[in-house]
């Protein structure tokens, strides 16, 4: 894997969050709660990497565990905003 920083995750089977939230940029896309300290990662909700959403790290990991094992996940570079590699949910660390 490249030594580029990981910017976010792209989940191909992104599900709509169960909680309806106002369009507040400082809320987690998955759970709706605000962020404390720097517990904020990014998740892309489309394959074109244009819909970037903020989410708690724990929410992302919990969300991935609920997805089908064949769901494809992309690791995206901070510097280039390009996909570094793809993996599946079953291969996650």
Summarize the structure.
This protein is mostly beta strands. The protein has 1 helix and 5 strands.
Range of helix content:
10-25%
Q: Give the radius of gyration.
A: 13 Å
Q: What is the count of structural domains?
A: 1
Spatial gap, N to C terminus:
14 Å
Proportion of beta-strand residues: 25-35%
- Spans of at least 5 consecutive residues with low confidence: 1-7, 12-22
> Outline, from the CA principal axes?
globular
What's the total helix number? 1
Counting DSSP E segments of at least 2 residues, the number of strands comes to 5
Strand order of the largest sheet: 3-2-1-4-5
Tell me the structural class: mainly beta
Order of helices and strands: EEEHEE
What labels describe this entry?
about 90 residues; mainly beta; five-stranded mixed β-sheet; about 30% strand; globular
Write a structural description:
It is built from one helix and five strands. Helices cover 11% and strands 28% of the residues. It has one domain. The chain has a five-stranded mixed β-sheet with strand order 3-2-1-4-5. It is mostly beta strands. The chain has one helix spanning 57-66, and strands at residues 6-11, 41-44, 52-55, 72-77, 83-88. The chain is globular and about 30 Å long.
